[in-house]
Amino acid sequence: MKKSTVIIVLGVAIAGGIWYRQTHIPSNATPLASPSGETETAIPSISLPPTDDPSTPDPIETNPVETSPPTKPVDNAGSGATKPAIAALLADSLPNLTIEKNKDGLPVVTNTSSLYVLVNKKRNLPANYEPRDLVVPDVAFSFSGNSPKKKMRKEAAAALEKLFKAAEKDGIELKAVSGYRSYATQKSIFENNANTKGEEVANRTSARPGQSEHQTGLAMDVSSASVGYGLEESFGKTKEGKWLAKHAADHGFIIRFMKGKETVTGYSYEPWHVRYVGKEVAKDITKKNVTLEEYFDDIASSINRKA
Ligand SMILES: [Zn+2]
Asked: Could you tell me the pLDDT band of residue 304, with boundaries at 50, 70 and 90?
């Protein structure tokens, strides 16, 4: 292309451009300068539909997003919660439902023949209560001859036989020392203790008449040759005492007067005194490592929580 032709073409192009701008671009349009030098026309704003249209479902509400895994409802607090079946078993035996004042104003239990009867310094058995199903369990005793203190209630006696057989299988020799005691017998024991050791010691180490578990026919004192069949704290340190603590619950018994719980039970630690409450309850109590008093308190509050 010749130089003159280029000049003509450029001149026509520039003149055309000026003409185009003057005739096509409105005067109120503000050209925007871009960094590259190109010009852009301002874009008028677009009105958007309202976002709060009630006909438009909220996607968050219709498709809820779970931020944590679903949790099952918990019906009892704590990991050691009582199974509902056990709570139901004990519902009629709760301490507040099974107490009344007798004519002398003494608090007496009303569920005397229940396997779950709670007898302690605040809960007396009636003086005339004597279990109707007392039998002598077929176990070794620390003494010979007939005596009411060999007796237990039928179900407890059968369980004691199984407990002693299990011990024998494990090479542990236990002997039964003292089971059922009538109100009258307990009265003379307590009075004798009070006379010889003083009332304070007697109160801590023996029950007043009406307040002994031995009157229920559900308790047995157990000992071994290693402590001369004595009922003493050292029994808890013998292999027999340790075996008993470990296996009593398998056969429905609890160590009733625990170490460190003297203020709850009102009695010194008695590793020799086992009380029958049935396997289910005994296992639960032992697992929770609580006294019968504390256990009932827990059951009562768990039932109240549900009510
Ligand atoms: Zn005892």
From this structure: confident
DSSP string, 136-157: --SS-BSS-S--GGG-EEHHHH
Centre of ligand 1 from the C-alpha of residue 202, in Å: 14
Could you tell me the distance, in angstroms and rounded to a whole number, from the CA of residue 248 to the centre of ligand 1?
A: 15
- What was the pLDDT predicted at 307? 64
CA of 89 to the centre of ligand 1 (A): 25
Please report whether residue 9 resides in a domain. no
Q: Tell whether 207 and 270 lie within a shared domain.
A: yes
Domain ranges, residue 267: 134-291
My answer on whether 144 and 118 are in the same domain is no
State the average pLDDT over residues 67-76: 45
Task: Give me the DSSP letters along 172-186.
Answer: ---EEEE----HHHH
Residues with CB under 5 A from ligand 1 (ion): 221, 273
- The pLDDT of 292-303, averaged and rounded, is 91
Tell whether 217 and 120 lie within a shared domain: no
Q: How far is the CA of 222 from the centre of ligand 1 (A)?
A: 8
